[in-house]
Amino acid sequence: MATRLVQINMKARDDAALGRFWAEVLGWGIDSEAPGVTNLEPVGFAYPDPAAVCIDLVVSEEPKTVKNRVHLDLATTSAAHQAELVARLKGLGATLVDVGQGDAPWTVMADPEGNEFCVLEPREVYRDTGPIAAVVVDCADPRGMAGFWGEAMDWTVHEVTDGFASMRSARGVGPYLEFIRTSDAKSGWNRVHLDVSPYRGDDPAAEEARLRALGATDPGIDQSAISWRILVDPEGNEFCLLSPR
Fold it and tell me: Distance between CA atoms of 44 and 28, rounded to whole angstroms?
């Protein structure tokens, strides 16, 4: 049994408007499964497939008050492409932000609702990921997070150090999932979180029990009205266990 990362969930004051922004950024299609929910995935994509990690934007009245602990890194193919992409994103409503990156070769930006993301300089490792190079999670212990998520999912761990860890689908396609050490403490519920799903035919209850045995815990909220399970990883980051797909 195992799960796989199928999408990220992003809270939004205006899910439709923010969805249009990210669809333009990524060149993806837009759909909606319910009022207040905007779904983004590549055009012609057959969900789920590790070739892409999709995005669900869900309306929320809660304001953004702190830097997100989960963000996207966008891939580029050349210095000229990076500059062109940054300029295009500014035209779509993104802004430059300073999160203490200093004189970094990548560009840190925020979408129209203030969600941080990075436009990376060209890197060989991301040459075939698609527009999203990586889903990045801030954490205190990248080794510990790679240990948990390496067991929780069937993705392959590629690199682990005290300050950084990365993993990618076992098929070697799509974006990476990366953990970067930070001293910032988690504050409140994450506005962006991971959604994972078991494989078709797996038992959701058994998979939940397996994740709990690995170190996932209960967030302590009423979940009686939802069909999926909300869990918390060893560093307190919420994630959703969806139905088998």
Answer: 9
Q: Residue 221: count other Cβ atoms within 10 Å of its Cβ.
A: 10
Task: Yes or no: say if 175 and 132 are a contact pair by the CB < 8 Å rule.
Answer: yes
Ranges of residues in the chain with a pLDDT under 70 are none
Retrieve residue 186's tokens: 């988690």
Position 214 scores a pLDDT of 98
pLDDT at 173: 98
pLDDT for the residue 1: 73
Question: Which one, of 120, 27, 37, lies nearest residue 72 by Cα?
Answer: 120
Separation CA 240–CA 233 (nearest Å): 10
pLDDT in the model for residue 245? 84
**Which pLDDT tens digit goes with each residue over 68-123?**
999 999 999 999 999 999 999 999 999 999 998 999 999 999 999 999 999 999 99
Greatest Cα-to-Cα distance within the chain, rounded to the nearest angstrom:
51
- Quickly list DSSP for 76-114: -SSHHHHHHHHHHHHHHT-EE--SS--S-SSEEEE-TT-
**For residues 82, 183, 4 and 122, what is the CA-based torsion angle, rounded to 10 degrees?**
20
- Taking the C-alpha atoms of residue 191 and residue 66, their distance in angstroms, rounded to an integer, is 10
What phi and psi values does residue 149 have, to the nearest 5 degrees?
-70, -25
Residues 6+ apart with CB under 8 A from 193: 8, 9, 70, 237, 238, 239, 240
Q: Residue 67 corresponds to which tokens in the numbers above? A: 């830097």
pTM above 0.90, yes or no: yes
SS3 for 212? helix
